[in-house]
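STRUCTURE:
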């Protein structure tokens, strides 16, 4: 008998924690966007795009949240930055969003919803699938990021300063993300039920 992947979403830890409680969901969204903002502040200034821990925070949050909750967390984070709250790596506001990092910010959302979607389909339960999911999420950050950067500075410069310099860091963050998600899932299964 062939294995057929269920179309019913799997339960991710943060979605389970939120349950049907609006207050818990709002708290998780606020905390998730705060974690991403804090990770943005841990950065290496580079031009035109800084290297930060944002993507690590985003891929882990998305894998632990699922599609709906990760889209809400990233949506809240982006809205906070666009309206001027200092949540982005080196600035805030609509003008910042339209600058060199704007495509990457859009990519954060795309990467998070892809990872969340796959987490809902049980990809967190398999190490190779989890690694593939987080790798895909990282790749989706670069697609609009490099494309938008190319509009501003040209393709050759965008590929060098917007992709090539980030490849090793992205691989390291993906591996760390896999370890963190697996540790969180082990902790969840070892936790006593109430």
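SEQUENCE:
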């Amino acid at each position: 008998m062939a294995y057929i992947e269920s179309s019913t979403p799997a339960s991710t830890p943060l979605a389970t924690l939120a349950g049907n409680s609006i207050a818990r969901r709002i708290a998780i969204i606020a905390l998730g966007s705060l974690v991403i903002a804090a990770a943005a502040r841990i950065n290496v200034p580079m031009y035109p795009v800084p290297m930060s821990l944002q993507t690590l925070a985003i891929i882990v949050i998305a894998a632990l949240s699922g599609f709906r909750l990760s889209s809400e967390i990233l949506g809240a984070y982006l809205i906070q930055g666009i309206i001027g709250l200092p949540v982005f790596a080196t600035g805030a506001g609509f003008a910042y969003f339209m600058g060199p990092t704007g495509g990457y910010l859009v990519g954060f959302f795309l990467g998070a919803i892809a990872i969340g979607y796959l987490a809902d389909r049980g990809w967190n339960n398999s190490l190779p699938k989890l690694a593939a999911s987080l790798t895909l999420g990282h790749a989706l950050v670069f697609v609009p990021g490099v494309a938008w950067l190319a509009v501003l500075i040209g393709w050759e410069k965008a590929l060098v300063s917007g992709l090539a310099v980030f490849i090793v860091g992205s691989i390291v963050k993906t591996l760390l993300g896999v370890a963190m998600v697996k540790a969180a899932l082990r902790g969840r299964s070892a936790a006593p039920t109430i």
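REMARK: The mean pLDDT is 89.
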